[in-house]
Amino acid sequence: xxxxxxxxxxxxxxxxxxxxxxxxxxxxxxxxxxxxxxxxxxxxxxxxxxxxxxxxxxxxxxxxxxxxx
Length: 69
Description:
Keywords: Signal. Residues 1-22 form the signal peptide. The chain has helices spanning 2-21, 31-36, 44-58. The radius of gyration is 24 Å and the shape is rod-shaped. 59% of the residues lie in helices and 0% in strands. It has a domain at 27-69.
């Protein structure tokens, strides 16, 4: 019983060391994709207008900011 506790403690410590060394990867979401998701799909004219506004708002090489869900 004592041996199982030691093995478990060592396993938990190893897991903690490994997880603390991992790097967090930020999601790559571009601004245009986040903006154009809200554009209407049923009306082509409104969709084009909305996408045009998204292009103006986001510009080249912009990233989405704020709460994306």
